[in-house]
Write a structure and sequence with these properties.
The chain has 488 residues and is α/β, with parallel strands linked by helices. Helices cover 34% and strands 15% of the residues. The protein has one domain. The strands form five sheets. Strands 1, 4, 5, 6, 7, 8, 11, 12 and 15 form a nine-stranded mixed sheet that branches. Strands 2-3 form a two-stranded antiparallel sheet. A two-stranded antiparallel ribbon has the order 9-10. The protein starts with a helix and ends in a 15-residue tail after the last strand.
Length: 488
C-alpha cells in the first residue's frame, strides 16, 4: 500500500479534525505570515527583509552601538558634578530628599544616611564646558562630540528588572529587546552577518559583576530569528561555527540544502514561524563560517587604531576588543551591536573597583567614537553609553573606612551620553537638584529614550507593534515621547 494512503487510513479522528481546521484558517494565517515575512508561497523563507512600510520616516542613522554598563555607573562621581555634595560630605542627608523614596533592601530606610562627596575632582572640558570627572580623561577629551542626558530616570530599583525594563520596555522577561525590534522591523543590511550581535565583558578581578541573562537580547514573543547572536570570548566566536573534523564545506552545503527542503515541506504543512527561523539560521550560520573569521581577524588594523583603543584591545573578551569588533560589525552591515560590561555595582568598592571599571571602559568608549568619526561612520551610527540607573548621593558603608565606601541603587536620576546618530554634540540636556538626587528639569524616562532611538532609526514607536495574546505590543508599551530637543 502507498505510504500516503496508509497514513490517511491510520489517521485518528483528532488528527482529521485538526487538519480540517487548519484548512479553514489557512488564508488568514497566510496573511499573518506574509506580514511577518515568513510566508513560503511567493517568498523566500530565508529572507531577512524588514516589514512593509518601514521605515516610517526618513532615518537619521543606519546602525546603533549600545555600550551598556551593567550595574549602574555612579552619575555623581562621573558626569553630574554637585559641589554641594562636597560641602555636605559626612553630614546626614536632608530628610526632604529621602522621605517617601524607595531604595534597595540594602539601604531600606535612608533616613540619617551620610552625604558622600565625589571621590575625584571634576573639570569643565571643551567649548561646551561639560563637567567630567578626572576618572574619565578619555571621555573628557571628546566631550564636544557627546550629548549628555542628565535627566534620565526609571521605575525600578533592582538590577535585573531595571535592565530588562530599559532594554525591552517591561520589567519582567518575555518581551523583545530593542535589537530584536529593530531586526524585526527593519531587517538586515548584510546577508552574511546577523542584524543584531551581542558581546559581554567583565573587568578582571571584579567582585561585583552582574549576571548576563539571555533575555537581555532575546526576541520575546517575536520569532526567535530576531534575537541577538552572542559572540563568545573564547573558542569559536559562535558555537558550532567550525565544521566537525572530516566534514568539508561542500558536504555541509549539500547537507543544508537537503535539510532546507525537508524544513520547507514542514513549513508548508504547519506554517510555524520557528521552522522559517530554523531555515534562516542554518543559512546564516553557513555564511558566518566565512564572514566571522574575517571579521574577528584584526591583524589588518593599523597600530595607530589599536593604540587608540588601549592596551587590552588584542585580548579577546575585553571591552576594548569588543568595541573594536563593534566598529568592524557596523562597517559590514550589522544594524545593532549591544556591548554589555558588568562590574559597576559598587556597594562597598567605590574607591577600588570603580577605578578598574573606568580603566577598562573609558579609553575604548572614546576610541570607538573617534574611530567611527575618522571613517565617516559616526553620522550614520548612534553610540549610547550608560547603565540601568544611577547611584545614591549618600554613603553606603562607614565614612571612616574609605576603602569600603559605596553607593546604593538610585532610580530617580542618572546620566547617559550619546554620540553621532543625529544627536546634538556638545550639549547637556536635563538637570538634577543640588545633590544629584532628583530630576528637576527636562526629565527623560526610559520609554522616552526608547522612542527617541527608534525615531532616529526611522521608526514611529507607536506604529511598530506585534500582536500577541490578543493585544498589540510595542517596545514603549503605551508610553514614551521623542526627545526632539537633543536631535540635531
Amino acid at each position: 500500500m502507498h505510504p500516503a494512503i496508509e497514513s490517511q487510513l491510520l489517521s485518528t479522528r483528532r488528527q482529521l479534525l485538526s487538519s480540517a481546521g487548519t484548512g479553514v484558517g489557512l488564508a488568514a494565517l497566510s496573511g499573518l505570515l506574509q506580514a511577518d515575512g515568513l510566508a513560503a508561497d511567493g517568498a523566500d523563507a530565508t529572507s531577512l527583509g524588514g516589514l512593509p512600510g518601514l521605515p516610517h520616516i526618513s532615518p537619521k542613522v543606519k546602525n546603533i552601538i549600545y555600550l551598556f554598563q551593567n550595574g549602574a555607573p555612579t552619575h555623581v562621581d562621573l558626569f553630574d558634578h554637585k559641589p554641594e555634595l562636597e560641602r555636605l560630605h559626612g553630614q546626614p542627608i536632608p530628610e526632604s530628599f529621602v522621605s517617601g523614596k524607595r531604595f534597595s533592601t540594602m539601604t531600606g530606610d535612608a533616613t540619617g544616611k551620610l552625604v558622600l562627596g565625589g571621590i575625584e575632582p571634576f573639570q569643565q572640558h571643551g567649548q561646551s564646558g561639560a563637567t567630567v570627572s578626572a576618572l574619565m580623561p578619555h571621555t573628557a577629551k571628546i566631550a564636544d562630540k557627546l550629548c549628555f542626558v542628565k535627566g534620565m530616570h526609571t521605575d525600578h530599583v533592582n538590577h535585573a528588572p531595571a535592565i530588562t525594563f530599559l532594554l525591552t520596555g517591561f520589567q519582567l522577561p518575555g518581551r523583545p529587546s530593542l535589537g530584536a525590534w529593530l531586526n524585526y522591523g527593519l531587517g538586515n543590511q548584510a546577508d552574511n552577518l546577523p542584524a543584531f550581535v551581542v558581546m559581554t565583558s567583565l573587568s578582571r578581578g571584579s567582585s561585583c559583576g552582574q549576571i548576563f541573562y539571555d533575555f537581555y537580547w532575546g526576541s520575546g514573543f517575536l520569532p526567535s530569528r530576531f534575537q541577538g547572536v552572542k559572540f563568545r570570548s573564547g573558542g569559536d566566536p559562535v558555537l558550532y561555527l567550525s565544521n566537525p573534523q572530516g566534514v568539508s564545506r561542500q558536504v555541509k552545503r549539500g547537507l543544508l540544502d537537503d535539510l532546507a527542503q525537508l524544513n520547507e515541506l514542514k513549513l508548508q504543512r504547519q506554517r510555524d514561524p520557528e521552522i522559517a527561523t530554523r531555515i534562516a539560521q542554518y543559512e546564516m550560520g553557513f555564511k558566518m563560517q566565512a564572514s566571522v573569521p574575517e571579521l574577528t581577524d584584526v591583524s589588518g588594523e593599523s597600530k595607530a587604531t589599536l593604540d587608540m583603543y588601549g592596551p587590552s584591545v588584542l585580548e579577546r573578551g575585553t571591552f576594548a576588543h569588543n568595541c573594536l569588533l563593534a566598529r568592524r560589525l557596523v562597517e559590514r552591515g550589522t544594524r545593532c551591536v549591544q556591548l554589555m560590561h558588568a562590574g559597576w555595582d559598587q556597594h562597598n568598592s567605590l574607591t577600588t573597583e570603580l577605578y578598574n571599571q573606568v580603566r577598562d571602559t573609558d579609553q575604548p568608549s572614546a576610541a570607538l567614537v573617534r574611530d567611527l568619526e575618522q571613517r565617516g561612520l559616526l553620522d550614520e551610527t548612534l553610540v549610547i553609553w550608560g547603565g540601568e540607573f544611577g547611584r545614591t548621593p549618600f554613603l553606603q558603608g562607614d565614612i571612616n573606612n574609605r576603602k569600603r565606601w559605596g553607593r546604593d541603587h538610585h532610580p530617580y536620576a542618572f546620566t547617559i551620553w550619546m554620540a553621532g546618530g543625529g544627536m546634538k554634540p556638545g550639549m547637556s540636556y536635563g538637570a538634577t537638584d543640588e545633590l544629584g538626587f532628583n530630576v528637576v528639569s527636562d526629565g527623560v524616562h526610559v520609554h522616552d529614550l526608547q522612542a527617541t532611538i527608534l525615531h532616529q532609526m526611522g521608526i514611529d514607536h507607536t506604529k511598530l507593534t506585534y500582536r500577541f495574546q490578543g493585544r498589540q505590543f510595542r517596545l514603549t508599551d503605551v508610553h514614551g515621547e521623542v526627545v526632539h530637543e537633543i536631535l540635531g
